[in-house]
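Standup notes, structure subgroup. Blocker cleared on the NDP input:
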Amino acid sequence: MNEYAQRVLDGLRARCAHEGEFLQAAEEILHSLGPLMDSHPEYEHAGLLERFMEPERAIAFRVPWVDDAGRVQVNRGYRVQYSSAIGPYKGGLRFHPNVTLSVMKFLALEQVLKNSLTGLNMGGGKGGSDFDPKGKSDGEVMSFCQSFMAELYRHVGPDTDVPAGDIGVGAREIGYLFGQYKRLTGRFEGVLTGKGLSYGGSLVRKQATGYGLCYLLEAMMQAHGMSPRGMRAVVSGSGNVALYAAEKAQQMGMAVVAMSDSQGYVVDEAGINLAMLRQIKEAERGRISEYARRVPGSHYHEGAAGIWAVACQVALPCATQNELDARAAQRLVSGGLLALAEGANMPLTQEAVGLLQAHGVLYAPGKAANAGGVSVSGLEMSQNATHLCWAFDQVDDRLRDIMHCIFRAIDRAAADCGQPGNYALGANVAGFAKVAEAMMAQGVV
Ligand code: NDP
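Run returned:
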């Protein structure tokens, strides 16, 4: 590892010892940046890595609300405004009980490089709360969202920071958040993306991360003389990213045979019936176990992690961080895995990534592979700013172009670093290069 990068990492380990997720992401990135630091000694003099490894701002706040039984509840809210070097902060909001400052910082750091890779001028941020929308009534979710925005509105705006959805934050939550922002500020403006189509949303935003994932997979496989057509695929999760990754995978001719939720997974050798799964997960907010009750021939298994025992040629982890460890990766390799692209953020442990790379499996990291969501968010911001509304195919074509462009950028960066095919390295280097140039130009800020 480059000496300067190692020193910065040692400093981080001492200062952020309790921030496991953030350290995991930072370590992976710093390991990749050696070649760039070697060729740019001026970065060390400018303290570039020390500055890059510290978010510009991390806001934590109280979110009090009243539940249906009249009891006062208190959650903790966050917004990490990580880097505005190349544009206004941009990144999703996550509502999940395991949200901590460390999780927010890791997601925001990844978001900075991801947004840079899209080629659009967006900085990086992330936010959320330890609030769990599961099992709450619509009224409780609205009450929470209104209280969350009562603080967040001071920190966001169409030219400063534009949040979107993530785990636990879908169309319903974005609607409540937008309504409260409008009431507090008196302004109807593009302060959030992922909005409903009737109030400034973009076509394809809902599908964007999942579709984009498949477009990047397609580009990566083509570059290695393969095609997704006819491949047997496993997709973890059954939320926004997973459902539309599975839809595009099927459209590309892949057979999606297994999907999961946080409790377990289903195997359907006839191919997952997505209309049924969407009905259960999107419309009814139910459990995936229900799928096996309704679809003859399919089987439900308790325990989400077991899904990686299902043999496949393509794996698309689309659920959550660290859902796939080295043992699971070994099983996938033994089952004939050819390619894996990350729909979720950091779904693989570092050991799992190393194992896939050692076995020659094509591996696309999340910061490149799941950039489709934020890309279309960027297109939503453009449409809001110009008061235009683009057609589905127009946005979808732009998305596909962006994902293929991202693949070319990470492919070139990996080759330039002397490690062709190492897309984890390529994504970090290509994403960081633009941010570094902007930081150097803007002085010590
Ligand atoms: P959702 O909340 O819509 O869905 C998450 C899904 O993952 C749910 O099906 C959930 O199950 C499942 N899940 C949660 N934990 C586990 C687990 N340990 N094992 C298996 N399944 C699990 O979130 P999104 O689809 O929006 O986000 C998924 C991932 O993609 C996250 O890492 C997110 O950061 C990333 N991402 C999302 C983007 C977006 O545009 N939405 C953009 C880029 C990245 P259950 O139904 O039981 O809760």
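Discussed briefly. The chain has a mean pLDDT of 97.
Next: hand off to the docking folks.
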